[in-house]
Amino acid sequence: MYWIGTNGAGAYRYDGKTFTNHLSEIGDTMPDGLYHNVIQSITEDNDGNLWFSSMSHGGANKFDGKTFTQYMPKDGLSDDQVRTNIVDGKGNVWFGFNGNRESGLTSFDGKSFQTFSEKDGLCTKNIRAIYEDTKGNLWIGGMQGFCTYNGKEFTRFVDDKGDIYEQIVFITGDKQNNIWFGGINGFWKYDGEKVVDMSR
User: Could you give all domains of the chain from N- to C-terminal order, each with its CATH number?
Assistant: First the structure.
């Protein structure tokens, strides 16, 4: 079974023979009067539920194998334009948003939502990427900053030369515990001590 997010037609499930469309009529309608639901992230939690992020004001949608449940700001999300989500090692689902209104970094523990904002030290509310490293730290990147969260506090990432990073759109790690990140301004590798520019 494969799930595919689209840039305006919701999500498709492919069973090896047939494509089935889902979530194509949620969120806001566009000027043409039609829905164009953008799904940028799909993640599976520890209970086997799939979480779909809608950038078209459709919030987060959980699929339990039979039905979809939509979560919106009234349910605890900090915004209805969800860009990305991940599941951490403890089973919490983390959501990053487009950065409108009072959005921030929202977590869901299976029962309730909690949001961290710039007032809590979050480096950007326009979150494009979230990654959990092998020590359980979250790395958060977006248009206005790049920081880590150790479960207690946020720390803006500063490299060995004193440089900070912005406009980050992806973060990942490898088996050697290097952190790879990049975006509009370049592509870098961090080995725990130094940052190497991989785009030169």
Answer: 1-115 (2.130.10.10), 117-200 (2.40.10)
